[in-house]
Amino acid sequence: MLPPTYVEGFHDLEAVNKMEYRPLGNTGLLVSKLSFGGGALGCHYGKYNEEEAIAAVREAFRKGVNYIDTAPWYGQGQSERVIGKALKGIPRQAYYVATKVGRYELDYEKMFDFSIEKTRKSFRKSLELLGVDYVDVIQVHDIEFAPSLDIVLSQTLPELSRQVADGKAKYIGITGYPVSILKECIEKSNIKIQCILSYARLTMIDDTLLSYIPFFKERNIGIINAAAPALGLLTSQGPPDWHPASEDTKKICSEAAEYCKGHNVELGKLAVWYSMQYEDVTTNLIGMQSLKLVHSNVDVMINGITESEKQVLSAIKDKYLSKLKVKHWEGFEIDNYWKAMKK
Question: Which stretches make up the NADP-dependent oxidoreductase domain (predicted)?
């Protein structure tokens, strides 16, 4: 059965028929198992060719991907601007688009603002950059950085609810690295939260999200699992310089990457496949900058990995990843942020 986002004449029908679609909680959106992460189109993952990035977005949608996520934080609007250009060549029916409010600039003083006024102004700018009249999902970005959760509950979420009432967004979500705060926010909120975005918490090295899935499922909340390659940590290329993981974790993951290279296997491909094996996750949000990555990730979603690649995966888990003493970096970024703010 074709998804409601299928558009005759635009889509590759054969590819769409092979793509898997899942309901995003109780939103009524039927979302592709693989979705497009716009974080890679900002400034945090190095330079990329804008024309190819635009082509990558369009190709992903043509192949049946129907959900794309971005935020002002990704290059201070750069990601939204590039995605906006790409969307001009795609029928509006063919995609669901999500953006965020709350996290903005690299400067610590201007990095976060969860106030009503900033939320309203930022969201208006996002719609302008994306070139759309509404977004399907509007999210509060990295809620753990708010001075208190009360600000998110009393200012940010009510303002997003007003935007939904005005027809500028359809559904509300929240994002964050500590999964515990996503749960706490849902428990305390008077505003209906319909989906959560958790990143790098259901990967080959960290399965924290799993213990929270029953809570989200019980409340029929859509689960977006982002950053299967753990923000570049689980790729042959390795993580960007700013990556918050410990040096020991980076060293062990680098050794796993070298083992993969020696067997002509891309570690990132294994990481994406691994995270896609969890049925209770609605969609897996993967950052993509190029056509090569789009084709690779669509292929992994449809065809999986080979037996030899599964053997390499088993080997790196036994030889390297099993040695990890600390599998996450929860608290590290928050500590650094508040130390910087107190200077």
Answer: 33-309
